[in-house]
Amino acid sequence: MSDNISRSSGAHPALRTSTFPCMRCGLTVTLLGPGGERRNHCPSCLHSRHTLDQAEGGGSDCQGRMSPLSIAVSRTGEWALVHRCTRCRELALHPVCGDDNQLILMRLAVRPLAEPPFPLEVFGEL
Ligand SMILES: [Zn+2]
Ligand SMILES: [Zn+2]
């Protein structure tokens, strides 16, 4: 199954050299990640652009800047970035790439633990 995916990505050599400028930090981002996967967010600041081809079906052409909101973990254990559009507030899930900024990923992942909506002292009484 996964063999088919890696082979089909080689069939699009144009994608391999395609780039887009990051809306936030200006980094030139290649459209394909290190593992040949298609990416749509900046590996440095993890920001993205709200475009039609990002979400299957319910896409949008609003072109707003999407900022990383948190991390979602799929049933297979893969991490996905939860992006929120700063313009239309829509949420979208994007798979994490191999060279994404690990510091920002970890910060997003532990944020709910660092700022619990209840006092942590309660655990000391258990
Ligand atoms: Zn960036
Ligand atoms: Zn939007």
Task: Provide a short characterization of the protein structure.
21% of the residues lie in helices and 23% in strands. With 126 residues, it is an alpha+beta fold.
Structural features, described:
With 126 residues, the protein is α+β, with helices and mostly antiparallel strands. It has one domain (2-112). The protein contains three helices and six strands, in the order ααββββββα. It has helices spanning 2-9, 13-17, 102-114, and strands spanning 19-21, 28-30, 48-49, 65-73, 79-85, 91-95. Strands 3-4-5-6 form a four-stranded antiparallel sheet, with helices on one face. The protein has a two-stranded antiparallel ribbon with strand order 1-2. It is elongated, with a radius of gyration of 17 Å. The relative contact order is 0.14. Bound molecules: zinc ion (ZN) (2 copies). Residues 22, 24-25, 27, 42, 44-45, 47 line the site of one zinc ion.
Distance between the termini: 47 Å
Indicate how many domains the architecture comprises.
1
Unreliable sequence segments: 1-11
DSSP helical segment count = 3
Q: Which band does the percent of strand residues land in? A: 15-25%
- Principal-axis shape equals elongated
Order of helices and strands: HHEEEEEEH
What's the number of extended β-strand segments?
6
Share of helix, binned? 10-25%
Average the pLDDT over all residues and give the rounded result.
82
Hetero groups:
zinc ion
Q: Structural class given helices, strands, pairing?
A: alpha+beta
Side by side, the strands of the main sheet go: 3-4-5-6
| Biggest sheet layout | 4 strands, antiparallel
Indicate the radius of gyration in whole angstroms. 17 Å
